[in-house]
Write a structure and sequence with these properties.
Blueprint lengths: L7 E7 L6 E10 L2 E11 H8 L18 H6 L3 E4 L6 H11 L4 E7 L1 H21 L11 H12 L5 H18 L9
């Protein structure tokens, strides 16, 4: 793998199901080719059930199925086996924050459903990182209605037209109720 330290990358998240695997990665462009750096999280209960992770030898299944080399991937640092009912989104966010120490991550993308859950955590972690480095974080006051309109365009414009219209129609009610009140002043 080429030396990618301080190189630009796009972060990508596949967090479709928090009950089995979650994957995150960085995509780099290198001399016309692409380099993919990845890390996955998998629930221990899931790999125990489907990949016999905790069993050295499962006599009933031996020879019947070929298993993914979960332990090998774990030892190589390609994935982490985690406890719990679901995969904690903070694990994924923390991985990206850690990677920012080494790479110039321009943005993080994923499916809209999960990104809605993760984007606030990512933004908060970025601000916290800036504060730890001694930077001042200045948050400009922004009217809630403006934020709402931008959010609709960003996250709902590619949805079914009826979904988009329902959100767009509510903008006027939001403007009437909140007027120019900044989002930071809403409690």
């Amino acid at each position: 793998m080429p030396d990618l330290h301080s190189r630009e990358a796009i972060g990508i998240i596949d967090f479709a199901s928090i009950r089995d695997f979650a994957a995150c990665g960085l995509l780099f462009s290198e001399n016309g080719d692409y380099v993919w750096k990845t890390h996955s999280y998998v629930r221990k209960e899931f790999v125990d059930k489907y990949y016999s992770y905790s069993k050295k030898q499962d006599a009933e299944m031996a020879g019947k199925r070929k298993f993914a080399p979960i332990r090998e991937w774990e030892e190589q640092g390609l994935l982490s086996v985690v406890e719990g009912e679901t995969i904690d989104p903070n694990l994924v966010v923390s991985w990206f924050i850690e990677m920012r120490n080494y790479y110039d991550i321009k943005k993080v993308i994923g499916d809209n459903f999960r990104m809605e859950v993760l984007e606030a955590q990512i933004a908060a972690a970025e601000k916290e990182l800036l504060l730890k480095k001694g930077n001042r974080v200045i948050v400009k006051e922004k009217p809630f209605a403006s934020y709402f309109e931008e959010w609709i365009e960003l996250y709902k414009s590619n949805k079914h037209i009826n979904t988009y219209n329902r959100y767009s129609n509510s903008v006027e009610r939001v403007k009437e109720h909140f007027k120019d009140k900044p989002i930071q002043k809403i409690t």
